[in-house]
């Protein structure tokens, strides 16, 4: 059963189309991340669902009912918006209770519900404080408690963690995920941060220019991006621009870059164009030391000779930049290297990656 359905929703501001024929369904208990660059229409989509903005065409249905005529407070929606701060003159408890009073929850039930919400967001005991007496992270947790207090059919979170510093952001992200799962909240979370989108969402919807360009599981979005935009926007990548040489062998085409690099890529028949952009994820590149490669290069693998330019040990991962003399640079990421010896700048290496790990657009 779909808790929310958007049917062909369009919103224009003058000549400008902010949301362009967006259709979307979300099932009960699922978390959907809406990801895209600034200005792609994420917030407008959320505002349309919440009822703050009316679409020009299309329909919004919540649990099968068209809510087009309902005011925001009449829609059973919980909100945590960027510009929807806590009320500074109200205590934490009053803030959390706010939506319940509005929605006509019996007065006698409110204190116990506030208590329940405070313990859910791990702030029990802070009910009497004012927002100014809380840290940024605590304020966001109160805002989340306020959004969830009415047990809404759908929870809309717009950049819920963006105001926090990096460490707190990560901590609260994990907590947010747990809380949403524990109350089985059907949620749309808007973010321009790809890591946040991939880690929070059961599914990710990528938007560009008001349109949905791809919807899929976090793994699909990363491993099978629908186009160059998604591949560039989600995750890190190395790019080559190549022209096809000869015909394909076993589904693998060879492309030559303007710098003269030959790259083999497994490309579906439908996409064997003459000029393509090629993408290799840094995690798929294996580096081997030594000036000569013992691995025979066949059409299914790529072996590029280079020299280590820079090594950045980033915790468990190691980022290695390789200079391909006269032919550009490559970033390789070695995961979970732990205490294994790394590479050093100036060291000759060979970068190996399979043709099936090369995406062609
Ligand atoms: N009330 C308005 N009047 C005119 N243009 C608007 C209005 N609201 C939004 N827009 C435009 O619509 C586009 C989409 O805006 P929206 O806020 O939905 O983007 P977003 O993807 O949420 O971006 P961000 O990540 O920066 O918040 C933007 O180009 C914005 O300038």
TrEMBL record:
Q: Which residues form a coiled coil?
A: none
Q: Which Gene3D superfamilies match?
A: 2.40.50.100, P-loop containing nucleotide triphosphate hydrolases
Q: Which GO terms describe its molecular function?
A: ATP binding
Q: Which residues form the ABC transporter domain?
A: 4-234
Family annotation (PROSITE patterns): ABC_TRANSPORTER_1, ABC_TRANSPORTER_2
Query: One Pfam family, short name please?
Result: ABC_tran
Q: Which UniProt keywords apply?
A: ATP-binding, Nucleotide-binding, Transport
Q: Is DNA repair included in the keywords of this UniProt record?
A: no
Q: What family name appears in the similarity comment?
A: Belongs to the ABC transporter superfamily.
Entry-linked PANTHER family: SPERMIDINE/PUTRESCINE IMPORT ATP-BINDING PROTEIN POTA (PTHR42781), SPERMIDINE_PUTRESCINE IMPORT ATP-BINDING PROTEIN POTA (PTHR42781:SF4)
What protein is this chain from?
ABC transporter ATP-binding protein
Q: What is the lineage of its organism?
A: Bacteria, Pseudomonadati, Pseudomonadota, Alphaproteobacteria, Hyphomicrobiales
